[in-house]
Design brief:
The chain is mainly β. Helix content is 4%, strand content 34%. It folds into 3 domains: 117 residues, left handed beta-beta-3-solenoid (Ribbon); 121 residues, left handed beta-beta-3-solenoid (Ribbon); 102 residues, no CATH class. It has 3 helices and 30 strands. The longest helix is centred in the middle third of the chain and has 6 residues.
């Protein structure tokens, strides 16, 4: 007989009230003392378990890990289970190698489902709290996260993975991530941000001065912010509620932001920088940006949907100014009362109130007029 407040730890066999030894049989252990102890492999106090289950094999011996280095995995009635160093079935998240720990990049994390089940789930979603070694903060605050297991029961982590046709991001311990996510050059998880953490101007800041850590060192993605319903990867154009305003972002079919790593990029007649679509202010209708993809750095005009104005046109903005576009390039923004006139391929100021022979004014050129009347909200991008 074992004399101990918690004999389940050192006991190897169990005999029922009728004296018969348990074999190929589960035991729901309820005789837990005031201080039942801690599971190194489960990384939880036994007092936190809803129930404690032990299993005794065909020879009557308790299934238990031989050390705290590796949990014991056994198949029982076609289902796989994990057992810790004291023979207690490991519920929820655990590590199979306690020396490496779950915070290391090569630690193997497994999930044992609910306390009342314990089956080692494969291809399974679970919404649960990480243990204290995986994340002390989440453990202390009881912060729940989604985890997804693979076919061997191990948790997917530190990567973007496809689950049931949709793609999800998982951090270094396997928590599904939502919002803006930056994956590093080796495709491992870098950092995540809530969508309302940054302003529109933050995304427009150059790499040297950007307040968004790692934005120039990895690929920017966006994952659904409705964590309880769908946190999958977003592609195409989407309106995002930033800290200061709503803004449209664009993502490629592979999920990567258009214009990632603080570079200007053009896609489908629109410009993007760090995924942010460069749109004109809705009340102004039009704006300009410097196309710095080439050494010329010419200004182009875009509308409130980010579409580049092509061809040769004279447009009127929301403040009553005239915008002259020639060969898809910005020429000038003038505040004349009359619409400028075009003659022989050139643009001129025009005053309909003047005498007939005085109505045609000076030629409108970028050199003479291009830098005039350019409010800060009219110039969208000039780096």
């Amino acid at each position: 007989a074992v004399e101990d407040d918690n004999p389940f730890k050192s006991a190897k066999y169990y005999f029922g009230d009728d004296g018969a030894m348990y074999a190929d049989q589960w035991l729901l252990y309820s005789q837990v003392g005031e201080n039942p102890g801690y599971s190194e492999l489960g990384q939880r106090n036994y007092s936190e378990y809803d129930e404690m289950w032990l299993y005794f094999g065909a020879n009557g011996r308790k299934y238990a890990a031989s050390s705290t280095d590796q949990s014991k995995q056994r198949e029982i009635n076609g289902k796989a289970y994990l057992f810790d160093e004291n023979g207690v079935m490991i519920p929820q998240l655990s590590v199979t190698n306690a020396n490496i720990r779950a915070t290391a990049s090569n630690a193997k994390v497994k999930y044992g489902s609910l306390d009342v089940d314990g089956e080692l789930k494969d291809d399974y979603w679970t919404f649960t709290v990480p243990n204290e070694v995986m994340s002390q903060h989440d453990y202390d605050t009881e912060e729940h996260s989604w985890f997804r297991t693979k076919k061997d029961g191990s948790v997917i982590k530190d990567k973007i993975a496809t689950v049931l046709g949709r793609r999800y991001a998982f951090d270094e311990i396997g928590r599904m991530q939502t919002g803006f996510v930056i994956m590093l050059e080796d495709d491992t998880f870098g950092i995540k941000y809530d969508v309302d953490e940054w302003t529109k101007e933050d995304f427009l800041t150059d790499a040297l001065n950007s307040p968004i850590a790692a934005i120039d060192r990895g690929s920017l993605y966006l994952f659904g912010t409705d964590e309880l319903n769908d946190g999958s990867m977003i592609t195409g154009e989407v309106t995002v509620s930033l800290r200061d305003t709503n803004a449209v972002f664009g993502f490629k079919d592979n999920g990567k932001a258009i214009g990632a790593r603080c570079t200007l990029a053009k896609n489908d007649g629109k410009f993007y920088f760090n995924g942010l679509r460069l749109d004109a202010d809705g009340s102004l209708k039009y704006g300009i940006l410097k196309d710095t993809r080439t050494g010329h750095g010419e200004y182009v005009v875009v509308d409130s949907n980010g579409k580049v104005v092509k061809g040769t046109k004279i447009l009127k903005d929301g403040e009553g100014n005239w915008i002259v576009v020639s060969n898809s390039k910005f020429v000038a923004r003038v505040s004349d009362s009359d619409r400028p006139r075009k003659k022989n391929g050139r643009f001129y100021h025009y005053d309909s109130s003047a005498a007939r022979h005085d109505r045609w004014g000076a030629e409108i050129t970028y050199a003479a007029d291009g830098l005039n009347n350019l409010d800060s909200d009219f110039v969208l991008f000039d780096r």
